[in-house]
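Incident log, entry 3
Record: Protein translocase subunit SecY (447 residues)
Problem: checksum mismatch between cached and fresh output.
Input:
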Amino acid sequence: MKKFFTTLSNIWKIEDLRVRITNTLLFLLIYRVGSFIVLPGVNAASLNSSQNKEGLVGLLNMFAGGSFSRSSIFALGVMPYISASIVVQLLGIAVPYFIKLQKEGESGRNKINQWTRYLTILITGLQAIGYLKSQVSADAMLISNPYFTILNTCVLTAGTLFVMWLGEKITDKGIGNGISLIIMVGIIAQLPGAFVTEFNNRTTGAGGLITFIVEIVALLGVIMFTILIVQGTRKIAVQYAKRIVGNKQYGGVRQYIPLKVNAAGVMPIIFAQALMFIPATVAQFFPNAASNGILIALSNYNSWEHNLVFAILIILFTYFYTAITINPKQMSDDMKKNGGFIPGVAPGNPTTSFIDDVISKITLPGSIFLAIVAIIPALASMIGVSSIFARFFGGTSLIILVGVVLDTLQQIESHLLMRHYDGLMKTGRIKGRTAVPAASGATPPVI
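Fresh output:
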């Protein structure tokens, strides 16, 4: 406990770190206050009974910190921005113009960010119209259409752009990745209510207090397992040749390229979830089709058909996203330019093949891990855990929480170590999402 308070004291002594943490907390407070401001022309008293918190709506509501179900001005949160970022990343693979921008350094990144913002406005406008038509019932509207739709489409678009601006300010003036922190705060905001709901269900119904304690222990075990895999790396030794310049010797040292077991992060789950929403949409357009039973089964969150297809898609998308974010050819070329080589492997194509083979081997357990984590919430629901509490047993929410917390703690520890203070831990260091040396060729995921 003394070590803990000493660490907090050291954090507060560093002026830059103290200002960054304070700014982060203030920006997040602004976001949380805004998430309770209801859209103009909406009767808040009529929303509670009309909102469905299951399935897709429940997932979006979790990411938005409850704003989705409250019809807040931040109801859409940062999800349109995330969607736009994914689209731009994919365009950077297939469209020559965006491929060229990626190679132009800082100016290219600025143009890509500008295109992402434009696309965010377009996606937010379309999603806002769909949200108002599907989630706000007629008895909750205090203003007649079409004025209600036009007004609140503008408000929702402005709200998403403001949240995006808050995220960028947190990244610039605060600590950690702003967009990720906003999503994390939204997820954590749902945790106390989920705990209370599950506790009441167990103490007043089946299972009792012992079952609730077992669930908490299981949740902690899943979190520990997730941390272990998220931080897991396969280190490739790189030897740099010696160079004599004057009377000094340069190089001749051995470094390591840490290839992450879960290099794709949470993106494969997001891609797979987007595809798993298609069967439910198709079933609505063809209610009398002979294959409608299969579509309903695939859209059922707790069915084995849904979870099997979901797991297969995650494994496939893990390989896909890893392939587009890690470039073994670029890693090999950069090592060769810097006079580095992998011991026992010839430079050039053999090095590229070696790195590609290692990535393929470690991606398999990483993809299986993601698939298991993604279907754990469904398995928890099948054994009686409430759907709200079950979402914290895995899936996108758990990986985001673990990744963002590790990333933020790693940045705080870097500030401490740079100023010759002890780190956050007595032994070892928080690895989190540390930078990959020696030109990894990897682009960090959006989330």
